[in-house]
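Whiteboard transcription, Tuesday session. T.W. wrote the structure tokens on the left side:
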């Protein structure tokens, strides 16, 4: 394995030295453009490593998303749904563990450990674009759940998340206007945002039985309905007895922003990847908070880009 790792970092160095560099959003290293998408070098190494080493199994469920679109929420809902016969809302590991610690992140947690799968349940998450997913995920037809969100809220969430991280590391924070400009140009972690969404959207139209495409706003509107759809899609629909007992409602309540964000682990714990404070993953959890951060002109500009980029796709955000 070590030899493999050495070879990988050598080929990684060869690859990154040739890649276009983009704005760093105030971090020491520039983002790197790889096959049309921008990545930090750490995540890019994870992607390349996953592409080379990760072996999916047919029953794997892959939760996919661009950053700050509801990944943490989707992880908790999926985990609670799949484990509901082992745990309930008073015993679930989600009460003492951060959702990122119960559903691993492919690029960082799992890329190097394909042969030692320590998955309690066959669920993994990734921010990779559809076109970058390890081949075995596609070949096996693994079920994929994708969540996306209004780009205005995603941008604000991303900007504030990175700013908090920068402050916690005593780094200078990046300017909102500059970050906005970069986001509009597509230069952000796993961006361009719209391309990320469109790849999964198109794939979901081609393979509706394999890809469930969700929107944060619709899920906020009627979370119970979407948890039922999610359960059905991943092959563990709620029985009528469970429905009568209010199991979907209990899962939704346990995974709600209000509940998760008030748990000790999520208020004061740290996430093992990079030691990020768990609380940073629970900011406000509202639809439309962009209004408090973007001027009407900024909002109109993002809406305009969204319209142009999605035009003809049948998707609206
Ligand atoms: P805000 O910054 O707008 O509050 P991700 O999980 O992909 O990193 O996305 C983070 C966003 O999801 C943050 O949005 C966060 O507050 C919100 N979020 C986290 N947990 C949530 C939950 N249980 N329900 C709804 N939104 C949640």
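and on the right, the sequence the group agreed on:
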């Amino acid at each position: 394995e070590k030899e493999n790792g050495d070879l990988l970092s050598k080929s990684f160095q060869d690859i990154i030295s040739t890649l276009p560099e983009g704005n760093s959003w105030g971090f020491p290293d520039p983002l790197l453009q790889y096959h049309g998408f921008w990545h930090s070098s750490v995540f890019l190494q994870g992607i390349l490593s996953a592409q080379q080493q990760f072996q999916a199994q047919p029953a794997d469920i892959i939760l996919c998303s661009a950053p700050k679109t509801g990944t943490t929420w989707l992880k908790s809902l999926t985990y609670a749904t799949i484990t509901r016969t082992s745990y309930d809302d008073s015993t679930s590991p989600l009460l003492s563990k951060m959702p990122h610690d119960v559903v691993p992140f492919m690029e960082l947690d799992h890329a190097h450990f394909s042969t030692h799968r320590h998955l309690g349940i066959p669920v993994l998450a990734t921010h990779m674009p559809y076109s970058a997913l390890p081949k075995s995920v596609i070949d096996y037809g693994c079920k994929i759940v994708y969540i996306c969100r209004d780009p205005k809220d995603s941008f604000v969430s991303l900007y504030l998340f990175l700013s908090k991280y920068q402050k916690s590391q005593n780094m200078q924070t990046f300017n909102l206007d500059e970050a906005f400009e970069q986001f509009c140009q597509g230069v952000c972690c796993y961006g361009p945002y719209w391309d990320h969404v469109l790849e999964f959207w198109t794939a979901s139209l081609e393979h509706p039985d394999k890809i469930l495409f969700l929107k944060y706003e619709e899920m906020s509107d009627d979370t119970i309905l979407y948890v039922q759809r999610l359960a059905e899609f991943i092959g563990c629909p709620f029985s009528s007895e469970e429905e009568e007992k209010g199991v979907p409602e209990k899962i939704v309540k346990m995974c709600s922003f209000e509940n998760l964000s008030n748990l000790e682990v999520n208020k004061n714990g740290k996430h093992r990847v990079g030691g990020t404070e768990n609380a940073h993953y629970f900011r406000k959890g509202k639809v439309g908070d962009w209004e408090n951060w973007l001027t009407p002109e900024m909002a109109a500009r993002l809406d305009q880009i969204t319209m142009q980029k999605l035009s003809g796709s049948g998707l609206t955000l």
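Someone added at the bottom: The chain has a mean pLDDT of 93.
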